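Sanity check

After download, print the first record. It should look like this:
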Amino acid sequence: MTGNHKSKLQTSKLVIMALSIQILLLTVFVSALPIQSVKAQNSTGANSTMANSNTETNLMVNGKSVPIKYSVTTGKLLGIVADKDKTTLLGIISSPVDKGTLRIELPRNVLDAKGQANNDAKFTVHVDGNDATFREVLNNPTTRVLAIDFNKDARIIEIIGTVLPL
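Expected structure tokens:
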């Protein structure tokens, strides 16, 4: 084996190990959350900035429950957790039938992506550890809305920002 091939193999093993640890920790963390924080609820709020959405889930951050509005074209959003150390939101989905899109409303006081001079920057999004196709479909002073595509059998959507204020 060449040195470059060994290095790539070691990197691949580390990535797989890191993902396995993340999934294990996420599973333990989600199972410890109160049931209402991971079950979707119907939203009665008419002030949503999301078109055709009436679903929300509660995100627990530092003991505070924050409603997160979303819609899914196929499958379900089973829950969402924050990883403050990585300025990341992890969404757990089930997509047994077909590919789909998660459209999620991110309040800026929960997660944001900022660059130089505090200008908006692009979020990084992964689906099951791989770069994801996504679009920012709304951006206003209080909220950013992402539409994230995922394939059949996808399980974890990771939204990485630069600021997780709560």
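If your output differs, re-run the checksum step. Summary of this record's structure: The radius of gyration is 17 Å.
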